[in-house]
Amino acid sequence: MMKVDDAEIKSGKDHRPEKDFDDAEVIERILSGEINDFAILVRKYQKGIYNYALRMLGHEEEARDLAQDIFVAAFKGLKGFRGESKFSTWLFRIAINQTKNRIKYLRRRHFFDDEQITSEARETPDMFATLSGSEDNPEEVFLKKDFNSLIMRGLMELPPEARQIIILRDIEDFTYEELSQIMELNLGTVKSRLHRARHALRKLVETKVSQGKK
């Protein structure tokens, strides 16, 4: 992933902490020639992009490579960002397309035929409450770690489109309106797809739990 360590915008005469700059201002600076300032956007969004890539692929090294590709594509295409949506929406739209291409590439090499899900990818903190309907029951909390592993395995068995919408809504916490923009779908379609994806995941997890009790 891109190496970005500076705490402030060093270019030009502006040394305000980068937290004081909004995305539009940073993008304007980049397009005016301060290309090193793209590191600010990487720092701001790299965790979310990496986590998305990790949940989609289930493998840390592949996720790092994919995250790198996403930011490279965003940098190359930045002139095409018109500001009609938030930068994060535009960035995750790129992430979806890059991920789709990476999954096709990995499938051709039978990457998903093996048990590739790594320990970091099994951390799905928000999904336990989403599927169980509770996060307060002590017995359920005790089982949360194993349940998260089942959820991630279930996610990896879903079609990429279903996996994608669950990750964006239930893990990355995008709103329905933001999902509509990212996925370029109307709001009703987003809600129905999410409902079907959650139902499919719940059934997969229930099956795995049932099999584990035999």
Question: What report would you give on this structure?
Answer:
The chain has 214 residues and is mainly alpha-helical. It folds into 2 domains: 20-116, Orthogonal Bundle (Rna Polymerase Sigma Factor, Chain: A); 123-214, Orthogonal Bundle (Arc Repressor Mutant, subunit A). It is built from 10 helices and no strands. It has helices at residues 23-31, 38-57, 60-76, 87-108, 127-132, 138-142, 144-157, 160-171, 176-183, 187-213. Helix 2 packs across helix 3 (60-76). The longest helix is centred in the last third of the chain and has 27 residues, at 187-213. It is elongated. The termini are far apart.
Fourth-level CATH superfamily of the largest domain: RNA polymerase sigma factor, region 2, helix turn helix motif
Q: What count of helical segments does DSSP give? A: 10
Q: Number of DSSP strands? A: 0
Please state the structural category: mainly alpha
Look at the structure and give the CATH class of the largest domain: Mainly Alpha
What proportion of the residues is helical, as a percent range?
A: 55-70%
Average of per-residue pLDDT values: 83
Amino- and carboxy-terminal Cα gap: 43 Å
What is the fold named in CATH at topology level of the largest domain?
A: Rna Polymerase Sigma Factor, Chain: A
Under the CATH scheme, the architecture of the largest domain is: Orthogonal Bundle
Main beta sheet strand tally, sense and closure: none
Helix and strand string, N-terminal first? HHHHHHHHHH
Strand content: under 5%
Radius of gyration: 19 Å
Number of domains: 2
- How would you sum up the global shape? elongated
Unreliable residue stretches: 3-13
